[in-house]
Write a structure and sequence with these properties.
This protein is an all-alpha fold and 264 residues long. The chain contains 11 helices and no strands.
Length: 264
């Protein structure tokens, strides 16, 4: 069965490669917003040379790492599962000889790998060339990033699965997906770097699942989180992953129990 899910991920990866122009447009968008945020950050550091222990170079790297990983983890406006529910095509997925949840998780892991290679790496390279960022961290921090990033990707998939599956109960779920897509951007460091927020708000965010989306892997690769602190925060996010996956499976069982196909 593992080979089946691996094949699903591989197929999704290959299918995504077809959309070259869409990826190019998204890449340009990431570079544009990364540049806008960078100039705002540079203006900020003209007033203060150090903010919360972050230099201007640290914060610029933080910003471009966020931009490079945003589609790997969050993929805002993702409504593919919701659309299959609206059109009834979900019946085809439910009829497959596999677990419904793991099938969709496998699909999205393949897509996440695609965005890492074709969107994430080029985005950071562009930022490094424009603003002279260089390569952050050491091999230890990159190893930590390699361990944390799959956790972040799975968190993002579980979260998207949850708000998409609400379409089983809601006639019009697109408004919910729009709201659910904005929330992680607010609390994961996409709009404002988490280290620049007030201490009380940073402490609150560290206990939310959104911290594991982008902020945690970025701080790991920058070397700002090491040792026990990194393992502790990763443990929190692992706990959230277990909760979200269990909730997704519970809601899936409840939803599929209501599905009627041709009156059967």
């Amino acid at each position: 069965m593992f080979r089946f899910y691996l094949a699903v991920a591989r197929t999704t990866f290959r299918r995504q490669v077809i959309y070259r122009w869409a990826n190019l447009a998204g890449l340009i968008t990431n570079i544009f917003f990364g540049s806008i945020f960078s100039y705002v950050i540079i203006a900020l550091y003209h007033v203060r040379p150090l903010v919360s222990g972050y230099s201007v170079l640290d914060t610029l790297r933080y910003t471009w790492l966020i931009q490079s990983m945003i589609m790997v983890v969050t993929q805002f406006s993702w409504v593919e599962l919701m659309l299959t529910i609206r059109t009834g095509d979900v019946v085809s997925d439910l009829s497959k000889p596999c677990d419904f949840c793991w099938y969709w998780f496998s699909r999205e892991l393949g897509r996440a790998l695609y965005f890492l290679i074709y969107r994430g790496i080029p985005t950071y390279i562009a930022g490094a060339l424009i603003f002279g960022l260089g390569v952050p961290g050491s091999w230890h921090s990159w190893l930590a990033w390699g361990l944390v990033l799959p956790l972040s990707a799975l968190l993002g998939i579980a979260y998207r699965f949850l708000y998409n599956i609400a379409a089983f109960w809601l006639i019009e779920a697109r408004s919910l997906t729009s709201l659910a897509g904005v929330i992680p951007l607010l609390f994961s460091g996409s709009y404002i770097p988490i280290p620049l927020l007030p201490l009380w708000l940073r402490n609150l965010i560290s206990w939310l699942p959104f911290n594991g989306f982008l902020n945690l892997p970025v701080q790991a690769v920058l070397g700002k989180l090491t040792g026990g602190v990194l393992w502790f925060e990763s443990g929190i996010q692992l706990g959230w992953l277990v909760i979200l996956v269990c909730l997704a499976r519970t809601l899936t069982r409840a939803a599929t129990g209501r599905v009627v196909v041709q009156g059967g």
